[in-house]
Design brief:
The chain is mostly helical and 460 residues long. It contains 20 helices and two strands. A two-stranded antiparallel ribbon has the order 1-2. α2 crosses α17, α7 packs across α14 and α10 packs antiparallel against α18. The protein is globular.
């Protein structure tokens, strides 16, 4: 590794307009990630064509800024309104929203930013130091290993089931059942489509996620609105003005090891083609709970419950870039789009990239590093704005959340059918909440069901 070339590239980027394009990407990702339903994949897919008129370094700075920032910003809506902005932020609903109900709004948002940046930097370091070894290890993952990883992810249903493991398993079974809708992954036979052409490709898990977490929560908040609830919300707002804005020294110390371990593990998970931040975050949340000295606090506002998954889903971005740059194999859906963007810019990913286009590689790595730094600065600066959301009366907040859910869902496929499906999922989610079921096991089953089925059958 040529450190002199890295330093020269670093100086060049900071003395050119690449610097400002990276900030532009971070701001765009912040807006995209905060809106429920709009994922990092969607943001990059929409904005990639606009980068073709830019220089390679400028275009990649924009895309990497969106990539990192959208994943971080997805945790903002997950914490504030219990609706994940992106699939990778689903684990933030486990503890983040509970901290908001306790009035610890600024602390939750600051932790979301701090540990997002730490995770992103860990992923960048892994990308710099271990590119080829990690890529070589990740390529050894075949159907048996993918099945084992997905099955391990499904086992997390028990940990996120709340008070009743039985209800959690029932909810997870419902998610697995819904994941079978559509075409058989091996034979192409139609299953449970009932002649509806919109169901041929299955049920979009983002649509169900936004419906159950967003619309379901809105309906539940409306149904339980009472003077006592208004008084509790008012007290939480009073606490939010006096509560500490940053984690205490004790909380920080307890989060150090989980953050570093989860960041390193997630960077490797991100390098495995077909995985993503949602799987990494859920796995790391559960493992952090297992090794914690106070596991009973998880799901009830545990600081490590925010730190570990947020570091995990951001570390995935650096890991996913490893197989992309070294072997030309995208690690997730976002890097699959980036692969096309790189080739349009004249950058051909593969083993020869590091020797023939070294400057471009270092520009990408430094842009990834800068995106995390700007994310930290802009995130901290925007805390005051985002924390005001908790002060908005529920009679105004609920309609706003519903509108965002509709807009974000429609934008996924530009299909009104998804909106109706999202509303239906919200109604189901409302009744499940009333019956004291947990939503995360359903989403787990829906996300991982297809992966488990396909890789098990391929293995057999």
């Amino acid at each position: 590794m040529d450190f002199s070339l890295i330093s020269n590239t670093f100086i060049t980027i900071f003395t050119t307009d690449v610097f400002f394009y990276c900030i532009l990407g971070v701001v765009a990702g912040m807006v995209i990630g905060t809106l429920p339903g709009l994922s990092a994949t969607m943001g990059i897919a929409i904005l990639t064509p606009l980068t073709f008129w830019l220089e390679p370094a400028q275009g990649m700075a924009v895309l990497l800024g969106i990539y990192n920032s959208a994943i971080w910003a997805g945790g903002i809506s997950a914490i504030l309104i219990n609706t994940p902005g992106t699939p990778a932020s689903i684990a933030q609903t486990f503890d983040g929203y509970y901290m908001v109900t306790q009035g610890k709004v600024k602390k939750a948002l600051n932790m979301n930013t701090i540990y997002s940046v730490i995770g992103g930097l860990i992923g960048t370091v892994v990308l710099i130091v271990f590119s080829f070894p990690v890529a070589e290890f990740a390529l050894k993952f075949g159907p048996p290993e993918m099945f084992a990883m997905a099955l391990f992810g499904l086992s997390m249903m028990i940990g996120v089931s709340g008070g009743s493991v039985f209800k959690g398993l029932l909810a997870g079974a419902l998610g697995l059942l819904v994941s079978t809708i559509g075409m058989d992954p091996m034979t192409g036979a139609l299953r449970f489509t009932f002649g509806n052409i919109n169901m041929l490709s299955g049920i979009e898990f983002v649509v169900v996620m936004v419906g159950m977490f967003g619309v379901g929560e809105v309906l539940y908040q409306i149904s339980k609105s009472s003077p006592a609830d208004k008084e509790a919300r008012k007290n939480a707002q009073i606490v939010s003005n006096t509560a500490e804005a940053f984690p205490t020294a004790k909380e920080t110390k307890a989060s150090v090891i989980p953050t570093l371990v989860c960041g390193a593990i997630s960077a490797v998970i991100g390098a495995v083609p077909g995985t993503g931040g949602d799987i990494a975050a859920i796995i790391c949340w559960q493992q952090t709970k297992n090794f914690s000295k106070h596991p009973e606090e998880f799901g009830h506002g545990a600081p490590e419950g925010i730190a570990a998954p947020e570091a995990a889903n951001n570390a995935v971005s650096g890991g996913a870039m490893i197989p992309l740059l070294t072997l030309g194999i995208p690690g997730d859906s976002v890097t699959a789009i980036m692969l096309g963007a790189l080739m349009m810019q004249g950058i051909t990913p593969g083993p020869l990239l590091f020797s023939t286009q070294t400057v471009d590689v270092y520009s990408i790595i430094i842009s990834l590093f800068m995106a995390n730094v700007f994310m930290c600065l802009l995130g901290y600066g925007a805390i005051r704005i985002f924390s005001k959301i908790s002060l908005v009366p529920m009679k105004w907040l609920n309609p706003i959340v519903f509108v965002f859910c509709v807009v974000g869902t429609y934008a996924i496929n530009n299909n009104i059918y998804d909106v109706f499906l999202m509303i239906g999922a919200g109604i189901v989610g409302y009744f499940l909440i009333k019956l004291d079921f947990c939503m995360p096991p359903i989403i787990l089953g829906l996300i991982l069901g297809g992966t488990v089925e396909e890789n098990l059958r391929r293995t057999l």
